[in-house]
Amino acid sequence: DAPVQIWNSGPGRWEWQRTKLVSGDFNRDGFADVMAFYDYSGGTTAAWLFRGNFNGVDAPVQIWNSGPGRWEWQRQ
């Protein structure tokens, strides 16, 4: 099928150099998912889950946020 846009962060809102991707079936539904860890700087990191489905992946849902000063991005 032709590509379909599932999400758009908007201009200047998502930088690939601040992103670390991991794949796996995180919700155990039989579909591969993509997890994006994003560095918001200041010791804040969030995990965004793109859940896999029959057609690809869903738009991301934030499933975790470290809170300010709690996650050292450079150590990952």
What secondary-structure arrangement, pairings included, does this model have?
Layout: E1 19-24, E2 33-41, E3 44-50, E4 52-53, E5 56-57, E6 61-65
Antiparallel strand pairs: 1-2, 2-3, 3-6, 4-5
What's the tally of helices?
0
Radius of gyration: 14 Å
Question: What is the N-to-C order of secondary-structure elements (H for helix, E for strand)?
Answer: EEEEEE
What are the segments in which pLDDT stays under 50 over at least 5 consecutive residues? none
Mean pLDDT: 91
Distance between the termini: 36 Å
> What is the total tally of β strands?
6
- Main sheet properties: 4 strands, antiparallel
Envelope shape: globular
What share of residues is helical?
A: under 10%
Task: Output the keywords.
76 residues, four-stranded antiparallel beta sheet, globular, two-stranded antiparallel ribbon, 6 strands, mainly beta
Descriptive report:
With 76 residues, this protein is mainly β. It has strands at residues 19-24, 33-41, 44-50, 52-53, 56-57, 61-65. Strands 1-2-3-6 form a four-stranded antiparallel beta sheet, with no helix packed on it. It has a two-stranded antiparallel ribbon with strand order 4-5. The radius of gyration is 14 Å and the shape is globular.
